[in-house]
Every structure is written in C-alpha cells, then in structure tokens.
Amino acid sequence: MRVIVSLLALLLIGTQVQAAAQTETSDEVAQMCKKISDRLASVSYKECSNIQFYQPRFYSASNQPILEAHYAAKPGVKNPVRILFIGGIHGDELSSVSVTFKWLNTLNQHHSGSFDWHFLPLANPDGLLRRPATRVNANNVDLNRNFIPAAAKLTPLEYWQQEASKRKRYYPGEKPLSEPESKVIHTLIDEYKPTVIVSVHAPHGILDFDGDKQPPEKLGPLYLRHLGTYPGSLGNYGWYVKNVPVMTIELPYAGIMPSAGDISRMWVDLVRWVRVKAQPESQVADGTDEKGAVSVHSGK
Ligand SMILES: [Zn+2]
User: Fold this and answer.
1) CA 282 → CA 15, 81, 244, 277, 285, distances in Å?
2) Per-residue pLDDT reduced to its tens digit, 68-83
3) Where are the domains of the chain?
4) Percent of the chain beyond pLDDT 90?
C-alpha cells in the first residue's frame, strides 16, 4: 500500500513539475511580448501573443529570449521552399520589427502549407529594448557585421578600422560570431537549411538581393537596387559563404510604419516571388498559397 501511495505521489509531483514548466515557458514568451508591445506602438500584446512561439531556445547577450515561430509546409509538399525570416537585427530599426509582426500575423491567419517558414521577428532584442534603441546589441556589436566574411583582403575588424572610420554603430566585434544573436542565425542556417533568407531593415526604402535566383523587381513600393555587401554582413555570409540567397528588405523609415496597403502589397509580392522564382528545381507548389488569402485580406 505504501508503495502505491509513493508511486501516486511521484506521479502527482511529475504532473506538477510538467505544469510548472509549461507555465514558465509561456510566462517567458508572455513577458517578452509585453516588453515588445510596450516598446512598439504598432505591435499589440495580442498580436504578439497570438503567435505560437517556441519555448525559447536562444537568448541575447543580456539574456532576453530570441523568439522563434515556425509554420511548416504540408506533409504532401515535397522539398518545400524554406524561408528564414529575420526582423530587427538592428535594434533601432523599429519598423522592421513591427512590419515583421504584421506579416507574421497574416501568415498565422492564412498559412496554407505550400511553403515552410521560420521567423525570428526580433533578432536583436537588447538593441530594441534599450532607451534609446540602438543598432548594436548589448555588447555594442553591429550584428550585421559579425558573421563569417567571404574571402577578402580585409577582415570585418580591419575593414571597420580602415574603411568605416571606426564608427561605433558599425563595430563588428573582435571576431566573427562573437555574439550570441549572430550565432543563433548561423546555427539556424545550418539546422534549418533555408532556400532563401529574408532580412528586414530600414530606412533605405529599397529591395536588395544577393544570390543566383532571379530577384523580384519590386516588393510593393520598394524597387530592386543593389547596395552590395559588407564584410561580416548577413548578405555577405548568407550568399558568398553559405550559398543561400539573401533578400534584404529596406523599409523607407525606421520610425514610421508603411501604410497598411503597402505592408500588404509587399507581402503579396514576396509570396508571389516565393511561389514562382524561389522554388527548388522541378518543384511546383500545389493548391492555393498565402498570396491568395492575403489578397482578400488586403482589400480592407
Ligand atoms: Zn539595418
């Protein structure tokens, strides 16, 4: 009898531990959603907490969770396009985080399963949550200069010293991947093996593309213009080191949101491009995709 009671007690304790772990997880995501919605007028707590984020696996330099959400392709879609989508690698480009949340909510409502998406809506939480927000992370490193560079005469650090006038905003760190946030992206590229990486920035108001696929001519109001890459940037690393095409979306303003119409048009153009041009060889997506659903949504 005593054994049975002990077993029952153990089972009960087990259940309690499990319940506590789940509560803790959702608390951690909920706290992050609270911080983000307090910081960004354009992202409500509801918009953030609507998303089924992973239990946090990765943390920033100052121990903030780096949120991840995944929308899998349907099991019937063979070799789907996989899109790694990154917002807010620069913490002071607030619109890049807000617009990424808008698109994430669109996908959350209309995901058809034609493609596979992995979202990091805020890659640099420390930069965004600082007052004032900063481009760099908590270690004052520009994450978009902290990746492994393609072969070049100058290392990212030498380039910064000799060509970038040692401007603090562009400090690449002592060595590539010194920062937890850039390591996360590096790890995801290796684990997730994206077909294409989409990274959202501001305020150049253009679309840039590094890769062998035919880029879109425009996304909504943004037209294609090649800016080139810097040693240690994600575009440089993604395409020239890892051979994964990188689309860089540069919104027109860091602190002003595009119109709802433009946010919708950019998404429609992006999904159309994914459907037509980003497919792996001999792959045609079946059924409807996110574009059709969004077209209806965007009419409002
Ligand atoms: Zn940027």
Assistant:
1) 48, 12, 18, 11, 10
2) 999 999 999 999 999 9
3) 41-298
4) 82
